[in-house]
Each structure stands twice: as structure tokens, then as C-alpha cells.
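Risk register update: the risk of archive-format incompatibility is retired. Evidence:
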Amino acid sequence: MVKRQLHTRLMGSSFELIVVETHQALAWDRLRAGVAEITRLEGLLTEFKEESQTSLINRLAGVHPVNVDSEVAELIQRCLYLSKISQGAFDISAGVLRSLYNFKEKVPRLPSEANLKAVLEFVGYGSIEVNGASVFLRQPGMRIGFGAIGKGYAADKVRALWKAAGVASGVVNASGDLTAWGVQPDGTPWKVGIADPRDPAQILMWLPVEDAAIATSGNYEQYVEIGGVRYSHNLDPRTGRPVKGIKSVTIISPSAELSDGLATAVTVMGPDAGLHLLNQLPGVHGIVIDGRDRVLTTDKIKHLTYA
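Archived output:
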């Protein structure tokens, strides 16, 4: 068996594809097929190409519904379900809030109440309608985007493609949203390192990944301090304000899409509400590092190995 890997940049993110196959030529065929699948999905889901279905939905917000591919409609339905169970902490219409913030300013500022209220008019998963393959944004000016879940969805789709082709072992890593199955050529399990928020160059713990998916959302690399308070680049769709009091969330589940979306939701919900939600979801586990560097986990998590 041979292990081959490929690095590429798609969907605005770095992808690492790893495949274990019987011989080298077949491994490279699998890798090229994986890249082609991610490219296809980017064409459907991107907000930044006029011809994409997402862009068409956004352009016709408040005008009339748009017929889309069934997989796009089904993805939006799952996003709406995640919004519902997280009480709005996850919301694919929240991207417009980023216009309120420029955390790269020399002197970062929070938006005024008036500006915040004006932009929040365009946020709300309750205004997204899906009927079969028809999608309609009821509020003119609304936009949806898949930045918080699209990479995980792409990882799942490549995994499904490869497994259907008989690939017994592989990894799809979409900038940290990772799915893996099988084992390495030497028989050992795939392992994922969780960064230490106090020093992101260091690994805090290792997690074995056996036919599962892991995603991490953290504010230890993208944040600002205003008035002595650390504000995350993650925004609460319900208030429009940056998240406070949490440094990182790691989710382990059967699906990279689900792990990706839940990592965002729990980051917004906070440790108590977030872990309560995760404990109710079958096959889902979570690790939260709060603002005081405490490591909090769901009830049934196992196999944590500290570095």
C-alpha cells in the first residue's frame, strides 16, 4: 500500500488530501478526482462568482424563489435545522455582519448601536424558505453564505466519493475541518493535534480519528482587544457582536459538515449551553477551552491524550 497526499487551495481555504491505495498511479487518480469534486462544489456554493447558485439566491432576495440543485437545497435545510437546535447561534445569513468590523484597523472599534441595528435587519434564518428545490430569501438585501459549513460539506463529499470507489483509508483536511477513515499504511490510526490556545504553535492534546470527523473553531489567532476585553472574529448572529469568553471549540462527530457547523454554534453559545447541546446529540463529542484556559468536555468523550 502507498500513501500519497496533495495540497491545493479551493473554497478560499487550504485543502490537504491523503489517500492510501494499492499503487501510486491509482492514488493520484483518486487525488485528482477529489480536487475535481471540491472544485465542482465551489462552483455551486461560492458567493463570489455571479454564476453560482448561491449568488443567484442572494441577488433575488425579496424578489422571487430560485430553483437550485437538490444537494444545495438539502444543505440549506440542514443548516436551518442546525440554526433551530442552536437557537440561532448558527446562521448562514450572518455573513453581512462582517461589514461592521475591520479587526485589522490600527485602533479597532465596535460598531455603533445604530449601525448594528440596521445590519441586523438582514440577518435571520427564519426568513430563509426552502420548498423542495426552491429557495427564497424573504427579506430584500439578505445574503447567505456557507463559510461556516461549506468546507466540512466538501470534505464529506470527497470522502463519500472515495469510499464508493473502494478507497479503504484516507484523510480530507479542509483547513482543520478534517474527516478520516481506515488506518495509516503501518496500521496505526490517524491522529489530529489540538492546538494550545496559549501557544498555537504547540499541541495541547492528540485525538485518534477512526472513521470520524473533527473541526475546531478558535479565537486564539483572529481576535482583537478593545478596552482590555478580547473579542473573537466569530460573531453572534443574534446580537451582531463578537463572541467573548471562549478560546476554542473542537467537535468530533460522524460528519465533517456537522462538526464544522457545531464548532461555530458552540463557540457562539458558550461552554455551558454548548456542551449541553452536544450531550444531547448521538455520536457527537466536544472539547471547549474557555477564556480561563479550562478544558471542558462532553460527558462521554474518550481517548484524550495530552501532549
